[in-house]
Automatic annotation (TrEMBL):
SUPFAM superfamilies: PUA domain-like
Domain Lon N-terminal: 6-224
Species whose genome carries this gene: Streptomyces xiangluensis
SMART domains in alphabetical order: LON
Pfam families given in the database record: LON_substr_bdg
Protein name: LON peptidase substrate-binding domain-containing protein
Length: 246
């Protein structure tokens, strides 16, 4: 078992390998994380782990809020996550490699990172200025019939996009724009489909690529059927610009 210790960035979203993650970092605990990452030599990866926050848990407010305008917001690395922050997070996440970390004049950061590899959360350390975690790196097992399943998922995904775009708009994804490597297909579709966090999390933690593709095929067919019966459903940004794994 290969383990690694990295800074931990909990989010209300799921990051997949190969997908780009833009971040606007303004909370002090995450500012401290970015300042630490900037100490990493430029020729080495600036890595941190992203985990999705479980339903019912949210990050601490950044300012006093309603109904008590005088309330002091919770602070510190565990703010908003309770006495045992590990219980507030899903157990499978993704390592992010920060290609760009730019500090603004107000001390906040603009970050552009890319998901690289899945990890399993083993433990959380809250003793520093920001959370760190011990993580187990997960291999990507192709499973059985991943190639054939990927072809079926791509066909279903194109139909899904066409339904989202509507009868008067063309689908913006063509065969030349979509990958054919099964694991890449599985992560692209998982990120691009309009699914809630629990559904995306189930796809991220699928035991192998084939299992993820089978689940996506079911989800895409179900979502396409729903859209077909609700023609007034608004299209998303997915229909206005191609999805990129850059």
């Amino acid at each position: 078992m290969t383990t690694v210790r990295l800074p931990l960035f909990p989010l209300n979203t799921v990051l997949f390998p190969g997908l780009v993650l833009p971040l606007n970092v303004f909370e002090e605990r995450y500012r401290a994380m970015m300042r630490e990452l900037l100490k990493t030599p430029e020729d080495e990866p600036r890595r941190f782990a992203v985990v999705a926050i479980r339903d019912g848990h949210e990050v601490a407010p950044s300012a006093p809020g309603l109904p008590d305008l005088t309330a002091v917001p919770e602070r510190g690395p565990t703010a908003g996550f309770g006495d045992d922050p590990a219980q507030a997070f899903h157990k499978v996440g993704c390592i992010a490699d920060a290609a760009t970390i730019r500090e603004r004049a107000d001390g906040s950061f603009e970050v552009l990172a890319t998901g690289t590899r899945r990890v399993r959360l083993l433990s959380v350390d809250a003793s520093g200025a920001f959370l760190t975690a011990e993580l187990e790196e997960l291999e990507e097992d192709p499973g059985e019939e991943a190639g054939a399943l990927a072809e079926g998922v791509l066909r279903a995904f194109r139909q899904y996009q066409k339904r989202l775009a509507g009868a008067r708009e063309r689908s913006l994804s063509t065969g030349g724009e979509l990958p054919d490597e099964p694991s890449v297909v599985s992560y692209l579709v998982a990120a691009a489909a309009m699914l809630d966090v629990p559904a995306k999390q189930r796809l991220l933690q699928a035991p192998d690529t084939a299992s993820r593709l089978r689940e996506e095929l079911k989800l895409l067919r179900a979502e396409t059927a729903i859209i077909r019966n609700l023609p007034s459903l608004p299209a998303s940004e997915l229909t206005r610009s191609p999805t990129s794994l850059n």
